[in-house]
Amino acid sequence: MGSRGSHAALIPDVDSIRRETGFSQASLLRLYHRFRALDRNKKGYLSRMDLQQIGALAVNPLGDRIIDSFFPDGSQRLDFSGFVRVLAHFRPIDDDTGVRDPKQPEPLNSRMNKLRFAFQLYDLDQDGKISRHEMLQVLRLMVGVQVTEEQLESITDRTVQEADEDGDGAVSFLEFTKSLEKMDIEQKMSIRILK
Amino acid sequence: MLRAALALLGLPLAGAGAAEEPTQEPESRGEPPPGLALFRWQWHEVEAPYLVALWILVASLAKIVFHLSRKVTSLVPESCLLILLGLVLGGIVLAVAKKAEYQLEPGTFFLFLLPPIVLDSGYFMPSRLFFDNLGAILTYAVVGTLWNAFTTGAALWGLQQAGLVAPRVQAGLLDFLLFGSLISAVDPVAVLAVFEEVHVNETLFIIVFGESLLNDAVTVVLYKVCNSFVEMGSANVQATDYLKGVASLFVVSLGGAAVGLVFAFLLALTTRFTKRVRIIEPLLVFLLAYAAYLTAEMASLSAILAVTMCGLGCKKYVEANISHKSRTAVKYTMKTLASCAETVIFMLLGISAVDSSKWAWDSGLVLGTLFFILFFRALGVVLQTWMLNQFRLVPLDKIDQVVMSYGGLRGAVAFALVILLDKTKVPAKDYFVATTIVVVFFTVIVQGLTIKPLVKWLKVKRSEHHKPTLNQELHEHTFDHILAAVEDVVGHHGYHYWRDRWEQFDKKYLSQLLMRRSAYRIRDQIWDVYYRLNIRDAISFVDQGGHVLSSTGLTLPSMPSRNSVAETSVTNLLRESGSGACLDLQVIDTVRSGRDREDAVMHHLLCGGLYKPRRRYKASCSRHFISEDAQERQDKEIFQQNMKRRLESFKSTKHNICFTKNKPRTRKAGRKKDGVANAEATNGKPPRDLGFQDTAAVILTVESEEEDESDSSETEKEDDEGIIFVARATSEVLQEGKFSGSLEICPSPRIIPPSPTCAEKELPWKSGQGDLAVYVSSETTKIVPVDMQTGWNQSMSSLESLASPPCTQAPTLTRLPPHPLGTEESQAPLELSSDPRPSFAFPPSLAKAGRSRSESSADISQQQELQPLMGHKGHTHLSPGTANSHWCIQFNRGGRL
């Protein structure tokens, strides 16, 4: 695909995508290549199947959820701008964030948006809260088989209680961010090559 | 543990003996006794080990003395003090013996003193942090060290060519390069000693420290290559020799790492099968790690790298395999050995410096070296950081670079290497020795002294120690998986990709092979955090009863949402968790709903590790097994001590509380003591219940003087049944779960009949276990401090209720239970028959306060115990300020039978 993809101009809507995501030209080009490579039948969009066929993703405990997050609102097609928009969450935070914030909406790679991305992986029913049940499901994926169901439940309880501040038995986004206050999200949710 | 220590300590004796032999010889040559002597002086036979032991003793005593003054140790790093002490001791020895006696012998240093330090640092290396920064560490270790060595050597040679170094220093370019190679390496011992006290942020620490560990390979190679070049003579060095030198860098470093990993594998595999011989587990760890060191040394590979990799690689599996006690033993032995070795090293460094016969001074060389190592270190760091920052997600900023340059301490490794030089081949050895000593002293003393103020002044990000929470652990794992997934999607096989791969490989094969089946659980990090949190809660609960309350208070806010399940759960709880011994420390807090049942079960599991519920009389004095009894006795002792302490503090609080009435006070105290005696004599129950009775006493005292007389008998009774009282409290609480929404008011204290209470009958775990009393009664510690405040309120309310029927002040917020529990009612009529039950207030706002409180330290909690006494307003709402009092079980005297 060398000659076809070698120019950024070939990417549809390249300017608006760049503005929205903040990716550099080179990164966009690389991502576009990747997008085309994933798109097996050259149909111009990605389907769930395309992503599911990435080998390593299949063994990732959160793989399905992450794939789902590429397809918001139950859509079945993922175009390039959607693809890039999700990945933009993992762009490292720029040093000069303070300068351009006021007039533009928060950039996709802000701390809040990074956290929100993680949050919606937990929040399956998208009611803005991680319920105990949702937490249990995640923990089951993460902890693995060695721990019995009962122990898992008690871990879940403790986890929810730890973060739950208003006593509703669920973790809201606010509580979620609070529980991660001390963590360096900017670092832990960024990938260097996505500049 | 002792054996392990002996094995390692015993070994140095042979080597060290030779070094210290010549001393005090005259004494040992006593005339041989002609016949049977009653008394024989055999100094000579014990001399070597005796001296080693004495040195270590002196060093340890010196450490104790240093730490007597907080001011000194906070300003001056221990390593500086030790070096100075060594200088003084060396001076004394020199003055007495007229010649310098003791030396830091390279053999002793490399074979015995260095390995424990390196093992300690490798084993306790935060592996995640290490691998996260592996790129930077490797760059600094390899490129940085090479750079330092060559530039310093070359610059010194230039200095000599310029005539600034006296011509009597006979050294060519190769000699200077050799010197540069040994002086360039940042020393792990010195760095660790200084940086551990400075507390810079983790990333900075791991980079400096990791560098100092990994650069050993480079130093060893450079030193050996240069040394052999010098020995061959520069004329005979062929081009292939240079190539060999480069190749040996890879051989030495990769070979060392490989040896370490092989031994790590062996170690992990061995510990998998030690289930029946737990006692040798710690020994295995030390032996195999030491074997790794010696093997690498034998093959002239990088021994430091080998031990580092061994410790780093085996830790995860070993920790999972060995028993809890062995883990503690390993940890402490390792720390003890390392700190011991470190102390001796610094002291011997100081002593060695006194020996002026070994060194010759040249100001140009010394000053030049000092300047060059500082300058090129800084320059190297800046250049490398600039390069690294092109690739790093989080760039290292200027302040980091300053600390990194300034933290390049040289130490005993350089000294030992310079002593090892062959004087016949390196004529300038004496000058090099002097320069090395000065450099080491300068970096350790001057830089060590100033780095702390510097770090403060530059406002370097300090390490913030925060306890892990389950949420953080879980989310961190999530982030890892997310990043790995995103790398997959992007199609970039980066760091996260490979880490993910490794983890899967580890899970599938390595862990299966190297871990006990039963150990899988511990291996899971989320589980591990959960386990540790619970253990911590349990321990701090035992340590400070009132204090823990707040940490378990975490569970409180979630209560209301579970009202619906509460009913079934209580019965479940009674039925099921009763099957085992319920010494659930958190039973009051956690056991409220069906779901919390598991929590309780879990706690039993966990607490089982702490307090053995069953008595096991094992008359064993086996050397190979530590008897259970010892453990149990220890537990009991801890309890008793805690309780005594608490008793003390409550006495004082009591005095506080009834400061208005001094009349009953003294009498109460006396009677209470009687009560203690009674309780112990009659029931054989430990005196811990006292805490609870104390509150009762407090309540009484505050109430009124008229009542005092009549109450005394009742108190006496309670004294006999203190534990049961507590058990009731627990069971009441169980049933109170459903009122959790309600605030306030609590009535219904009853006098408990002398023997088996309903609680004991109904709750299987309450009876038939004498031991249990101990644990259950520990609940009192939790309740008591709260009750100091409760007592106050309560006395007020009970004064009112004397006139009126109990519970006239029904709380506005009290929610009545949906319907009474049939089963419970029949089972425990006594408890439920009385109308209003104790209830508690859990304002949601407390959760936060509770959490922060849980992190506070022990002495704060002491204050907290007193807190409720002051400034508590009525019994309406509890402010976060009195968070530890949010567990109010109030006993309304009016409700008594």
Architecture overview:
- The complex is a heterodimer of chains A (195) and B (897).
- Chain A is mainly alpha-helical and 195 residues long.
- In chain A, helix 10 packs across helix 11 (149-163).
- Chain A folds into two domains: 13-89, Orthogonal Bundle (Recoverin, domain 1); 106-189, Orthogonal Bundle (Recoverin, domain 1).
- Chain A has helices spanning 2-5, 14-21, 25-38, 48-52, 55-59, 63-70, 80-87, 97-100, 111-122, 132-143, 149-163, 173-179, 185-188; strands at 129-130, 171-172.
- Chain A has a two-stranded antiparallel sheet.
- Chain B starts with a helix and ends in a 31-residue tail after the last helix.
- In chain B, 49% of the residues are buried.
- By secondary structure, chain B is mainly α.
- Chain B contains 38 helices and no strands.
- At the A-B interface, helix 3, helix 5, helix 6, helix 9 and helix 10 of A face helix 20, helix 21, helix 22, helix 23 and helix 27 of B.
Structural class of chain B: mainly alpha
- What is the succession of H and E elements of chain A? HHHHHHHHHEHHEHH
- CATH topology-level fold name of the largest domain in chain A: Recoverin, domain 1
Based on Cα principal axes, name the global outline of chain A: globular
* Largest Cβ-defined interface: A-B, 65 and 62 residues
Please count the beta strands of chain B (DSSP E, at least 2 residues each): 0
| Arithmetic mean of pLDDT of chain A | 78
Largest sheet of chain A: 2 strands, antiparallel
**What is the tally of helical segments of chain A?**
13
Provide the gyration radius of chain A in Å. Answer: 19 Å
What is the mean predicted local confidence, pLDDT of chain B? 68
The assembly state of the depicted protein chains is heterodimer
Percent of residues in helices of chain B: 55-70%
Q: What is the CA–CA distance across the termini of chain A?
A: 23 Å
Uncertain stretches of 5 or more adjacent residues of chain B: 1-28, 547-592, 611-620, 654-788, 799-897
User: Class by helix and strand content of chain A?
Assistant: mainly alpha
User: What is the correct CATH architecture of the largest domain in chain A?
Assistant: Orthogonal Bundle
Shape of chain B: globular
The first-level CATH class of the largest domain in chain A is given as: Mainly Alpha
CATH superfamily of the largest domain in chain A: EF-hand
Subcellular location (chain A): Cell membrane; Cytoplasm; Nucleus
GO cellular component, one term (chain A): cytosol
Pfam family, one (chain A): EF-hand_7
Family (chain A): Belongs to the calcineurin regulatory subunit family. CHP subfamily.
